[in-house]
Design brief:
Main location: cytoplasm
Protein name: Glutathione S-transferase
Number of helices: 9
Organism: Thalictrum thalictroides (Rue-anemone)
CATH architecture of the largest domain: Up-down Bundle
Largest sheet: 4 strands, mixed
Pfam families: GST_C_2, GST_N
Oligomer: single chain
CATH class of the largest domain: Mainly Alpha
Radius of gyration: 17 Å
Helix content: 40-55%
Keywords: Cytoplasm, Transferase
Strand order of the largest sheet: 2-1-3-4
Length: 229
Amino acid sequence: MAAAAATNLKVIGAWASPFAMRPRIALNVKNVDYEYLEETFAPKSELLLKSNPVHKKVPVMIHNDQPICESLVIVQYIDEIFTSGSSLLPSDPYDRAIARFWATYIDNTWFSSLVGIAKAKTDEEKATASEGLTAGLALLEEAFEKISKGKGFFGGKTIGYVDIALGSCLGWIRVAETLSGSNYIDETITPGLNAWADRFSSDDAVKDLIPDTEKLLGFAKRRFGSPAK
């Protein structure tokens, strides 16, 4: 992929983290070169602790020796700093506010249900998480119809802010489907998101970043313990 010049640009991430995928997708969309540093957490690296002393979490992007933390903040920074490639946030203030709303909804409300399926130790916990995940995807299906305006992505013709926020979670959705035996995104229940997910996953900016489902499933079992059967 052709890349624009970037001075001293690094991303500290972790392969299983959907949040750590986001800056990498955004930089790929913008055609910007960067150095990727995989965080091992055994123990946490001095660079991570120095760069994000408040939360001590990935992702962190270091641009010209200045660290930027929190995935959605980093994506917005990338959109403002790098003018190569397509814009990630809409130019219209209202559309931009709507995009930020849905990205915040994904992180603050919906994501807990997604991870809840992997964390569930009882059938009741799994059912509650599954209901929240399904209800959230139904809302996102409606949002996609409105925001995309008949085009292929939430961002229109190209990957945008909400695409990155939700699309980074596709690997974990597949894990949730494996653990629950349910299809949360398919052509019957969420036809818009189903076609969108295929487009997003196969895009050059994304396709090499989505983790293998079996590998991610193994990580989830190690991280959260044996799930409910």
